[in-house]
Amino acid sequence: MKIYKFLSLLFIGLILLSASSCQSNDDRDNSQDTTPGNLQIKFENGFNNLGGIVLNQTTQTSSSGQKHQFSTLKYIVSNISLIDESGKEFKYNENNPDKGAFIIDQADAVAGIVYVNLTGIPKNNYKKVKFGLGISQNAYLLGMDGQAEFWNKAKTKGMSWSWAAGYVFVKLEGKYGSTAAEKEFMNHTGNMGNVAANNTPDLYREITLDLPTTARVTGKIRPSIHILADLNQYLSGDTKLTLNTSNDMMMGSSPHLVSVTNNLTKMFTVNHVHNDED
């Protein structure tokens, strides 16, 4: 009986040792696997109390009581960064619009979502996402050689002026009114060329968002970050705005469009993160 108990305990010990060894090898293999992965960012444009925006249909009432709806809703995002648990930042094609700038166009939305797919992301656990609204001066001042591909794309999408003037950062068009959205408006924000040389405001803004769930990028897992953009901030943000004949047809970086830009930087929030196998 003693021999039987001894053999049983020895057998159990060998099983536990084997399992521990396998687990250690698995952990070691996983930690040594540095295969980069992919990551997807989903932009969903809406009004805070009405859900997704349907162009030419969805009407919102501003905090000042003004009705407005969009027929065109586009903006540029660039210089996307991912920040890991230790605060280290991975910059995705920084100041390289050809590879790292994207046009979020509501007309391209699929079931209300515009997709941005990023490749070659280092394996890591990411806690924050950062991106620019517009194109930075550092990127713009590289000239045409540094961004010819994206410049042509922006031109096709109506998101550029002449090269000397630069890019349209945000293009908002539609109708507004006191009781119904009937009168047309057009607000196009963007820098006026070299802002230092031209002594004009720099409307490029960077936004940093916390992720409610860690985005775990591996060679097998492709996280999807779902960002909501609340366009109610346009007129009802930190600076309450009312459209009228003095500002309803504006392009560039006027004081009104500076206020529009500052309002829109507050419109983004991360709704959720999915860690799905690629």
Structural class: alpha+beta
Overall body shape: globular
Number of helical stretches of at least 4 residues: 7
Gyration radius, in Å: 25 Å
Report, as a whole number of angstroms, the end-to-end distance: 54 Å
Helix content: 10-25%
Low-confidence stretches: 21-29
The pLDDT mean sits at: 90
Concise synopsis of the structure shown:
The chain has 278 residues and is of the alpha+beta class. It has helices at 2-32, 97-100, 137-140, 148-156, 195-198, 233-236, 255-264, and strands spanning 37-47, 51-52, 59-61, 67-84, 89-91, 102-105, 113-121, 124-133, 170-177, 183-189, 205-217, 221-230, 249-252, 268-277.
Describe this structure in words.
With 278 residues, this protein is α+β, with helices and mostly antiparallel strands. The chain is 24% helix and 40% strand. It has seven helices and 14 strands. It has helices spanning 2-32, 97-100, 137-140, 148-156, 195-198, 233-236, 255-264, and strands at residues 37-47, 51-52, 59-61, 67-84, 89-91, 102-105, 113-121, 124-133, 170-177, 183-189, 205-217, 221-230, 249-252, 268-277. The radius of gyration is 25 Å and the shape is globular.
Lay out the secondary structure.
Blueprint lengths: L1 H31 L4 E11 L3 E2 L6 E3 L5 E18 L4 E3 L5 H4 L1 E4 L7 E9 L2 E10 L3 H4 L7 H9 L13 E8 L5 E7 L5 H4 L6 E13 L3 E10 L2 H4 L12 E4 L2 H10 L3 E10 L1
Parallel strand pairs: 1-12, 10-13
Antiparallel strand pairs: 1-2, 1-7, 3-4, 4-5, 4-6, 4-8, 4-9, 8-11, 9-10, 12-14
